[in-house]
Fold these 4 entries.
Entry 1:
Amino acid sequence: MSPRAHRAVVAAAVLIVACLYVYGFVLNRPEEQAEDSRPRTGPREQLVIDGAVIQGMDAGVTAWRIAAESVSVVGDQRSSSTHVRGIIHGEIMRDGEPYMTFTAGSGQYAARTAELVLDGGVVFHQDGEQLLRSDQVIWKPDESRAVVPGPAVITTSSGEVKVDSLQLDVTADKLYSEGQLVITGTSSSGDIAVRGGRIVFDPKAEALEATGPTTIEFEIGD
């Protein structure tokens, strides 16, 4: 092999090695990705506080207040939510003053919707007396309204009122329900079932008012 040919072969070999180095160590480096470009597996718990009192604001006024066993902030840079566990004492406010108190297993507040969702054995009290219990209650401060999407029980001095779902208008101090409502313990002959129409319950006067097509059924006891 001539010296010129030998130099050409050496140069080609060096070029090939250099290309392999560029591919193997520069273009194909999965471990060298920037941290911000790595895929996220889901929301991460950013802050956990054991035992705390937190409050939500609406138009600069306190809308609710909670004392819980623990509080955590979960989310990423784009969205986050506050989770509370073991709600020892909570307050729903009206005009900045306590309107109702409650306890619950847990709660979640999302800043994007400004809604407070209470879950797990939610019990509401008014004037020191139990008023309402359900598995879930959604408090909407901007509407001064609480929504109970599932079955709930209203406690009165004469018995219990079971409803499929209801809404609580804090401003009007009224409970609204549609569908079926069953009153127990108020009649010696048995339960009273009210179906259809729009049913309004006044917790102060413990009075019911039904509008629209309504059917009332009395259960005849022995």
Entry 2:
Amino acid sequence: MNKKINTLLFVLGATLFNIIVALASFVLLLIFYVRVLHPVIQTGQDWAFALIFLFSIAISIIVYRIVLKILIEKVNVEKYFDPIFVRKGSKKKPPQNPS
């Protein structure tokens, strides 16, 4: 496989991983709320779903960054992946013949 396909597969896999972590943390936080906090706290139930949703997104971002940092330390990124964004001035020009 070439670098562009590796990059595409990595982005798709990382996105899928992030969605799975967000859903799993949402379900776990919802179960925690229903079993532990709901019987104890009777006020503010309207905001519970929104806060659980926001916390699950925050947890997924934190987990994603930690896993990505570990992956970058273990894998030579430049060897296997093509850069997604390239600066305009970073393209190398072919050498010109001095005539």
Entry 3:
Amino acid sequence: MKGKISITLDEYIIKFVDSHRGDVPRSKFIENYLKSKMSLFEVLWIFADEIPKTSSSEWISAHLSQPLGKPLHKHEGFIEIEGDNLEFYDTNFIKQFSVDKKTIKNLSISYDGNFKRFRDSRGMIPPMQFSMGKRKIYIFIRTEGRLPHIMGYYKGYNEKFLNAIRIRPKKIQTTEFTAKD
């Protein structure tokens, strides 16, 4: 969803924008500049203890809609990286919970014994997962579309997110699977 806003800028900011934007329209340059500086990511997530409560129709639908549909999840919203914390918000930007980055353990992009890939399905996008205290979470981050008319899709691996949190995964599972996976 896109919205239009009107803002007033100081003259020196306009000069800065004009000196750096080249042929890009001012509004697009400002939007791109803000996006590059923000640490806000659109995400889907599910906790490990919620997976057994997932209905079979939700599970099958999530796996069969891959790679362009939404993967298995119970929550939709955003993560803002604010200092040493990951702030989770719902789609209305109501804060749900916060995670101190120091409590993140065993970050990986992979399937496991709890979040499994359905055999021979198109569900070939493993989640980002990590433990935080006693809970484990699985996350999918929306990628940016390459063209304005192409929507991004959700995947566990997102280099921009990993750079922003400054934590490297212990394991990265590729989307290439053997027959025994």
Entry 4:
Amino acid sequence: MKKSLKRFISAVLSLVLIITVALPAFAADSGEQIVAEISVCSRDKEVPSFGHTWIYIHNISDRPIQVGAYWVPVGEGVSIGTFANTRDDGKGVYYNIESHCINKYGDHDFYSITKKISGDTLKKVSDKILSLNDWNFFKNCMHFTFAVWKTATGQSFANLLLPTLGELQLRIAGARYKNLKMSYPSADRVYKQKGSGSGASLAVVRSSSLVTPIG
């Protein structure tokens, strides 16, 4: 009886994951000028962490682009994610903390999916980032990441609360391992977002926010 129940639960979870990641991504940027590559990323390595998911946006245009409250130089990228107690600058949206720490500690062993987006889509992504400067158990890093990714691509992933389960969804959807190299910003270019919406600003994080690996 117990074995049958376990098989049933496993089958239901597998079905939920398959249905979720099978939802089509919309080709919203067809025919529009492509300005950036957006990646959805997940790393689940450090103990006792539950893992971490984040967004990375790389500027492939010929001019700086705005991502949330941050301007990305030509040929560079920015990582964006939310944190709570693992960073000393408080709950909410951070810029470049994943890019800095993963390069600093050599932790390039994460999964990612990458797609190209247009300037119009980037504006929607930027607005979404500015609106999500918060963190709680239900609106955690996975909630933030998947909300931004859906805005950019139309592809939905379920917020199953634990980033480990988020990574499983990405792997089922074809995420590649050790496939993305992010820019390496200096510590003075790692920021915490202050406020939300059009009035949001950036503050350089404390050095103590950069001593913990990602994931």
